[in-house]
């Protein structure tokens, strides 16, 4: 069985936002930029003192790069008020010439969130809040509609908030999600889906069922399944000898990722890498080869 | 009220409409080029303005010297805890140029939220306090991990052109921002300002603060005629120390804006300085009352020389967490001086001389064991900033290195030349400590001790004089520095003749050890028969031995030939052998912040050979569990080529250096004394025992006598006594 949503392929890295040394993560963003990758992403855990504030890191890294797109992977919603996040994302998108995407998560690590003074939410509440937040964010970006933004939700009560700024390009809202209810929200309201392979208990084959839930929800909401880009956080190790999944030479990686792209419709591969050589190898030897394999398969 | 002593600064506040992001950034960058000290980006009151924080951060990425601040931030809009992390990140990424200013509008909710936000920001930057919950009406903290520890806190200002904001700034903030355009009218501006300033000052005093803790910034009227007299009056009559020009971001810098920055600012600066008594204005940091409250007795904090004041760390400073302790020792010093030049080292020594009653630690890398480079309530002079590495003479391989450089940086800098300089076994160690004590490293048998490569040293002595010691200049000091340098002064530069070293063989072997005594004897025998190009170190614990050996050769046959005999001593359970540059070995472990606790218990002996009796006593020590670290470093080879009286490190006949560490001194010594019975000396760098008896073990009688003579001459008051002192009794050395 094969699925393909027809999106062009994106390749990126997933960089640890360490603040010691202070510029390490920025340097890794520059490496990704210079290597020609499409995307550099950072996790967002504001309760961890050894990590940079992800938004500040992204804005600084954006100023130091020229081509690569930047996104959180993914933002911790309970500590990021949606209206502020929307205006910040639009502003950085304007400053960077359209290089910002918005990775969003419902939240987790509730003890950490609570310690920072944020709300503790049950899984159900966190999805509800995410749903409201997406409406607020889209409302802020929508400077065409008249009047202020009003979303009178259970978690966010925005009443007549001014709109704007509008981003430079349609920023994608990419959501990290695994369970059925939030996958339905992704299908209904998001532009992208950003799970991590490490959290899929059955490996890549889990994607089939999860994709189906997103597709069904999209269609039920009057959208097309292709409205939701499917990305995947991956980890691996380059080695001379062929080994397990993404444990081997670049050619092996390319075959495996092309297979994932063609089987599950995954069109964004985000590699966990804090290492210059790994990032460069991924960009120079894996990304073009996957693109070629996928293009050939799509053409046939 | 006159000046508060703050030097005058000029800034721009660039309003940032979304329509022209490029113009806004250009204006900010240009303002910096024209001399603006601050570039401020306000949270947009305008429809659809750019996000101030994103814009400030972006601007920080595009500028290099100006302070960059997000201003008029709504304290109700975002969690203060997350703002604190954002501020810390901007501070770290921008190189300490961050600033933030909160809108303390007349709306009482905003005023309360601003106060709560400041409290959260302070708590999040203070890594020395327990995590107390803060429960406000709008902002909360409930056990969040504070940090990251910053070298300098991010200044927090409050913005509001009314009395309540001024008073709140006086109570809690580092600065206050007023819009002159919002004062009643131009004619009454002086009166109005005087009233607000008085409110600020009295609130500050009422809160137990010094009004000088709060900088005052005025945003000029957009239509201000920019008369120099008026601007001087703001500074001289009202103590305004930041003059902020409002800039329309859609238009960029106008001719008027440029005129103010380029022409008027220097004139105003000059006239303000002329109008005030000399010395009124200073860049000396004004510490908050709560920071000053943590000062220790007996230190003249306010007399720290001006040149040192900016980089000095006190117990209440946010940087304190990062400098208080060393690699192995927990500490709580009263003051850490961080000189950045030789002249500043001289000033620091002068300051230390007037604090003879306190402990004085001298720190280069902070790895010292004998060297007390931290203490309780005393001074520390940290020369970590003196870390230059310069090649002086390529043909002679002469390299000048500052004491604050780390050995990993030295190795990395020398590698492209095909050179290396024997250092210790860990790249994070600082140059100063090792190069004044010995330096028993992985290239020891092949190339000698680190001190054997010193050709000259420049040192600040106890009387503050700077001397250069070499074979021909101050030769007696040159002799003494190479083995007992810490007793004589602070080394500020070394000149080393380094060795040509290509890629080396680097082995890490692990063995199963059933009979520790037998293993030790065999190890000793094999080392004695091994060519001097190979230097093995051994770490022995119950049941397991780890051998790390460096072979100064990239020839696989030579490497295998030297290592094979070691592999045959006992069953090999793990092995890794690579050919790599010396620098790769020194860079094996990344640097991590120093967070030592308590006091290390470390013991050292030097032995000529591993005798059966020494091995048996060692085996008993290891079996006892009293020590968690038992390491033997092989010496000999090139180390023994140097005559015993050529340097103050005299134990040239030692074959092995043993270091033992444990948690409890009494327990360690119970077993270690039996090991020590077989010793021929000790290496002071690894000895933490302050007992004067250790001194005669480190230095043979003739050496010690010679050292004490020189000590009496150069440091008669025993200023330098916190790293293996050669003079103990009384405060003056016996001559």
From TrEMBL, chain A:
Natural source organism:
Ornithinimicrobium tianjinense
Looking up InterPro entries in the UniProt record yields: F420-G6PD/mer, Luciferase-like_dom, Luciferase-like_sf
UniProtKB keywords: Oxidoreductase
- Show the Pfam families listed in the entry: Bac_luciferase
Coiled-coil region: none
Q: Which residues form the Luciferase-like domain?
A: 16-232
Molecular function as annotated in GO? oxidoreductase activity, acting on paired donors, with incorporation or reduction of molecular oxygen
UniProt keyword Oxidoreductase present: yes
Domain of life assignment:
Bacteria
Upper taxonomic lineage? Bacteria, Bacillati, Actinomycetota, Actinomycetes, Micrococcales
Q: Protein name, please?
A: Luciferase-like domain-containing protein
Q: Does the keyword Oxidoreductase apply?
A: yes
UniProtKB/TrEMBL annotation, chain B:
Chain spans, region Disordered: 127-148
Matching PROSITE patterns, A to Z?
A: FAD_PCMH, OX2_COVAL_FAD
What the entry lists under InterPro entries is as follows: FAD-bd_PCMH, FAD-bd_PCMH-like_sf, FAD-bd_PCMH_sub1, FAD-bd_PCMH_sub2, FAD-linked_Oxidoreductase, Luciferase-like_dom, Luciferase-like_sf, Oxid_FAD_bind_N
Q: Which residues form the FAD-binding PCMH-type domain?
A: 329-501
Molecular-function GO terms, alphabetical = FAD binding; oxidoreductase activity, acting on paired donors, with incorporation or reduction of molecular oxygen
Record keywords, A-Z: FAD, Flavoprotein, Oxidoreductase
Name any cofactors this protein relies on. FAD
Sequence similarity = Belongs to the oxygen-dependent FAD-linked oxidoreductase family.
The protein depicted here goes by the name: FAD-binding PCMH-type domain-containing protein
Q: Name the source organism.
A: Ornithinimicrobium tianjinense
């Amino acid at each position: 069985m094969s699925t393909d949503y027809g999106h062009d392929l994106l390749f990126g890295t997933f960089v640890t936002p360490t603040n010691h040394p202070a510029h390490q993560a920025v340097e890794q963003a520059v490496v990704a930029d210079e290597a020609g990758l499409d995307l550099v992403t950072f996790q967002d855990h504001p309760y961890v003192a050894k990590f940079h504030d992800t938004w500040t890191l992204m804005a600084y890294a954006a100023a130091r790069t020229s081509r690569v797109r930047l996104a959180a992977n993914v933002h911790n919603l309970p500590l990021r008020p949606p209206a502020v996040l929307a205006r910040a994302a639009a502003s950085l998108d304007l400053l960077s010439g359209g290089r910002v995407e918005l990775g969003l998560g419902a939240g987790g690590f509730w003890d950490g969130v609570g310690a920072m003074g944020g709300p503790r939410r049950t899984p159900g509440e966190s999805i509800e809040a995410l749903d409201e937040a997406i409406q607020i964010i889209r409302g802020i970006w929508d400077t065409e509609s008249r009047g202020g933004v009003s979303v009178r939700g259970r978690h966010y009560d925005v009443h007549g908030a001014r709109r704007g700024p509008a981003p430079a390009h349609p920023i994608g809202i990419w959501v990290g999600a695994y369970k059925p209810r939030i996958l339905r929200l992704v299908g209904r309201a998001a532009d992208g889906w950003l799970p991590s392979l490490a959290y899929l208990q059955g490996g890549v084959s889990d994607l089939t069922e999860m994709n189906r839930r997103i597709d069904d929800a999209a269609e039920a909401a009057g959208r097309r399944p292709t409205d939701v880009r499917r990305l995947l956080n991956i980890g691996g190790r380059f080695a001379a000898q062929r080994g397990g999944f993404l444990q081997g030479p670049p050619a092996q990686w390319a075959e495996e990722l092309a297979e994932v792209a063609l089987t599950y419709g995954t069109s964004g591969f985000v590699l966990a890498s804090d290492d210059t050589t790994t990032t460069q190898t991924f960009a120079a030897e894996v990304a073009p080869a996957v693109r070629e394999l996928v293009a050939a398969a799509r053409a046939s | 009220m006159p000046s508060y002593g703050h030097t005058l600064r000029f800034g721009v506040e660039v309003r940032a409409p979304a329509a022209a992001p490029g113009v806004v950034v250009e204006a900010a960058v240009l303002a910096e080029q024209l001399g603006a000290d601050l570039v401020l980006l306000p949270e947009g009151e305008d429809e659809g303005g750019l996000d101030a924080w994103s814009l400030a951060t972006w601007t920080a990425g595009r500028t290099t010297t100006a302070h960059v601040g997000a201003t008029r931030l709504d304290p109700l809009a975002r969690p203060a805890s997350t703002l604190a992390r954002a501020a810390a990140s901007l501070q770290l990424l921008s190189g300490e140029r961050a600033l933030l200013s909160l809108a303390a509008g007349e709306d009482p909710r905003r005023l309360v939220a601003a106060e709560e936000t400041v409290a959260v920001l302070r708590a999040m930057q203070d890594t020395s306090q327990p995590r107390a919950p803060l429960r406000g009406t709008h902002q909360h903290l409930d056990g969040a991990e504070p940090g990251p520890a910053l070298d300098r806190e991010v200044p927090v200002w409050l913005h509001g052109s009314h009395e309540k904001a001024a008073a709140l700034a006086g109570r809690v903030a580092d600065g206050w921002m007023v819009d002159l355009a919002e004062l009643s009218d131009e004619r009454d501006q002086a009166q109005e300002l005087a009233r607000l300033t008085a409110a600020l000052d009295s609130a500050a005093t009422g809160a137990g603060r010094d009004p000088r803790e709060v900088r005052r910034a005025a945003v000029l009227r957009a239509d201000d005629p920019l008369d120099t007299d008026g601007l001087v009056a703001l500074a001289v009559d009202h103590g305004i120390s930041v003059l902020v020009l409002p800039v329309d971001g859609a238009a960029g810098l106008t001719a008027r804006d440029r005129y103010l920055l380029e022409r008027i600012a220097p004139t105003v600066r000059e006239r303000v300085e002329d109008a005030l008594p000399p010395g009124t204005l200073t860049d000396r940091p004004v510490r908050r009352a709560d920071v000053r409250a943590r000062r220790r007795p007996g230190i003249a904090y306010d007399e720290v020389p001006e040149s040192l004041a900016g980089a000095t760390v006190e117990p209440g400073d946010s940087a304190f967490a990062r400098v208080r302790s060393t690699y192995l020792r927990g500490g709580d010093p009263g003051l850490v001086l961080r000189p950045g030049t030789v002249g500043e080292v001289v000033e620091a020594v002068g300051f230390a001389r007037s604090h003879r009653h306190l402990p004085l630690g001298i720190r280069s890398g902070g790895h010292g064991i004998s060297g007390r480079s931290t203490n309780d309530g005393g001074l520390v002079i940290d020369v970590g900033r003196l870390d230059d590495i310069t090649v002086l003479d390529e043909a002679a391989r002469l390299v000048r290195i500052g004491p604050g450089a780390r050995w990993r940086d030295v190795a990395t800098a020398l590698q492209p030349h095909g050179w290396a300089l024997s250092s210790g076994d860990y790249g994070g160690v600082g140059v100063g400590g090792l190069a004044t004590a010995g330096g028993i490293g992985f290239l020891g048998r092949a190339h000698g001790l680190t001190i054997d490569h010193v050709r000259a040293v420049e040192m600040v002595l106890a009387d503050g004089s700077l001397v250069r010691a070499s074979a021909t200049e101050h030769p007696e000091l040159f002799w003494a520095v190479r083995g007992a340098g810490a007793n004589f002064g602070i080394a500020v530069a070394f000149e080393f003749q380094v060795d040509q070293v290509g890629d080396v063989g680097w082995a890490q072997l692990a063995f199963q050890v059933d009979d520790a005594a037998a293993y030790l004897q065999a190890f000793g025998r094999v080392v004695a028969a091994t060519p001097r190009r190979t230097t093995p170190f051994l770490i022995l614990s119950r049941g397991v031995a780890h051998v790390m050996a460096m072979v100064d050769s990239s020839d696989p046959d030579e490497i295998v030939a030297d290592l094979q005999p070691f592999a045959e001593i006992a069953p090999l359970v793990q092995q890794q052998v690579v050919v790599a540059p010396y620098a790769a070995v020194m860079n094996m472990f990344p640097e991590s912040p120093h967070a030592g606790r308590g006091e290390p218990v470390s013991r050292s002996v030097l032995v000529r050979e591993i005798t059966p009796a020494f091995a048996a006593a060692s085996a008993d020590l290891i079996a006892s569990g009293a020590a968690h670290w038992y390491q033997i470093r092989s010496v000999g080879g090139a180390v023994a080529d140097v005559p015993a009286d050529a340097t103050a490190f005299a134990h040239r006949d030692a074959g092995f250096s043993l270091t033992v560490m444990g948690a409890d001194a009494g327990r360690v010594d119970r077993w270690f004394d039996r090991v020590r019975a077989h010793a021929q000396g000790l290496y002071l760098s690894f000895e933490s025992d302050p007992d004067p008896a250790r001194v005669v073990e480190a230095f043979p009688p003739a050496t010690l006598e010679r050292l004490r003579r020189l000590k009496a001459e150069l440091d008669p008051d025993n200023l330098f006594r916190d790293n293996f002192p050669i003079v103990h009794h009384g405060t003056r050395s016996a001559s």
